[in-house]
Amino acid sequence: MLLQLDGITKRFGGRTLFEDLALVVRPGDRVGLLGPNGVGKTTLLRMIAENDGWDDGQIHRAKGIRVGLLRQEIDPGREHSVHAEVASSLTELDALEAELRELEGLMAQHGEAGREIPADEAERYDRCHSAFEFAGGFEREARVDRILDGLGFDEARRAAPLSTFSGGWLMRVELAKLLLVAPDLLLLDEPTNHLDLPSLEWFDETLTKYRGAAILVSHDRTFLRRHVTRVAELGPRRFDVYEATYDKYLDQKVARQDQLLSRKRSQDREIAQTERFIQRFRAKSTKARQVQSRIRALDKIERVEVVEDRARKMRLRIPAPIRSGESVLRLDGIEKSYGENVVYRGIDFEIRRGERVALAGPNGAGKSTLLRIAAGELGFDAGARKLGHKVEVGFFAQHQLEVLDTSRTILAELESIAQIDDYPRLRSHLGAFLFSGDDVDKKVGVLSGGEKARLALAKMLLRPSNFLVLDEPTNHLDVVACEVLETALREYAGTLLLISHDRSFINALATRVVDVRGGTLRDYPGNYDAYLRKFQAGDGTAEPAVASTVAASKQDRMAARERSKAGVRTQSKARKKLSKLEETIPRLEGELESATHRLGDPEVYRDGEAVRQIETDRTRLRAEIDAAYREWEVLAAELESND
User: Regarding the domain delimited by 568-643, which CATH topology (the fold level of the hierarchy) does it fall under?
Assistant: First the structure.
């Protein structure tokens, strides 16, 4: 046992955050600490790290255990370099190295004087040398560089002062320090929030090889699936431990809830029978003893409590937007620089109706720049941006949290953009974003970052556009909120362009991934897993995103389009293909309708794995239907022009 929590209770004023909490952490454990935002997960981690106190109970730690907490509050004003800050976490090695140098000096003096080295000095040197070697002292510079490289710090960033970095990069510095020290128990509070996709993959591999135990707070479901071996769920008035991986926990949670509901229904029937007996015979003296016996029995009953998990039952439906033209957005020859830093020089990019495009690549490669240009939020130096017929853009970015009116209530903030016919559904719309009951009367100024993110999303999706451009929409959202948003966007009838570090989110939504790096765009059809397989294999299956190259000239682009036209099949082959598509589309639509009907079956809905498989099938079918319609339109237009 590394750690044991025994009867831990924590109160804030008159509010009990959690009570009588118990947990054992064993060597090698990967405990996923789950629960909605604001329930006390960060507070619990700080208590385990001895940064915060508690009111009742005890926390027992194994002798000599080293605990490392990923800090959330970081001083941004420090002037020393990233490398120096990370290396400073190995101060115990400095002391060992100083002792080694001292002993080496003494031993050299003995040798010069022709004296034999004293046994106690030789023994002390061997002990110190072994400790230094075991702690990785002889390779610490290589370890520092390896970890910083994995987290996206190139040589220039490693040498830069900490004061020049944003909060997200400073979080990476703190994570690097923790990984370098490698404590016996890691306490990781949202460690993936500020990592780009390449860094996430590196971090996944590093944590897999880590020998210590870890308690993980994260809304990244891919991260949870890869690492969690046990789940501790913290909720209002409860703390449940599951000896299960993340996916098995989801199934077991549903089963536990069903069993609890069954026990409650049975108990409610027994209580009702007893109460009817008491009411019926209370006035009869011949039954007085039996009545009193039943009253005492009722008082002793430990009532079964069922805490409704309402958040998981919430379902957001985005109203269908108007249908746009086939080409939603086209960028031709876009050039963009920030001073001397050239981000793009002559790139092309196109999105067609119904596509769900995710931008991937390392931080600093230009993903956000491309996204903001696509949304019309950022100008460019040369080139052309063309929106398609009837395209309406909806843009979400983190800065939108800052423009919320802090003096308004949640409901009033939504009302500020609502139209008359929206008013009847404002409360239900907010409920889908986990604001219900009296919550809607809270002032925006008291909301947490996650709550503000949900409110900003609620505003954007009240009257959705047919082209949504989303920059990290799941940041600050807990797992439940991510799932609500993901489900809504999966059923959304418009076009999506997004950046996200949530790999489950991308996998559920993307029909195409565009890798952005080195001033070029490369297309990978499919979701994130498909992109990662092809990218890592380097199999050359990616295509330029509409002939996107750094040095692409106008003539090159025109030639590429002419070659594309020249490759179209002959007219008779086109007619055969068109006929086949007219058979395929109704079949695919029938399969989609059948899959949708299966979701309505209560027996199916109780099976979490079956529901996930059906949702996967529906996503695939929708993508195939969209692709079939696009191909049909191209062929039909070609045949019409040749008639």
Answer: Helix Hairpins (1.10.287)
The span from the CA of 369 to the CA of 354, in Å, is: 23
Can you give the residue ranges of every domain in the chain?
Answer: 250-306, 327-485+495-564, 568-643
Q: What are phi and psi of 41, to 5 degrees?
A: -65, -45
- Amino acid 552: pLDDT: 37
**Mean pLDDT along residues 193-210:** 88
Question: Distance between CA 290 and CA 292 in Å, rounded?
Answer: 5
Per cent of the chain over pLDDT 90 is 29
What separation in angstroms does the CA of 287 have from each of 273, 283, 294, 298, 301?
A: 16, 8, 11, 17, 21
Looking at residue 559, its pLDDT comes to 42
- Residue 253: per-residue pLDDT: 87
Q: In sequence order, what are the beta bridge partners of 349? A: 331
Please determine, for residue 373, whether its predicted confidence score (pLDDT) is greater than 80. Answer: yes
Q: Scan for tokens 């907010």, then name that residue.
A: 430
Q: How many alpha carbons fall within 13 Å on the CB side of residue 501? A: 24
327-485+495-564 CATH? 3.40.50.300
Sign of CA dihedral 615, 351, 471, 447: negative
Asked whether the beta carbons of 192 and 48 are under 8 A apart, the reply is: no
What is the C-alpha separation between 76 and 166, in angstroms, rounded?
8
The dihedral built from the CA positions of residue 75, 76, 77 and 83, taken in this order, carries a sign that is positive
Tokens 């900490």 map to which residue?
Answer: 162
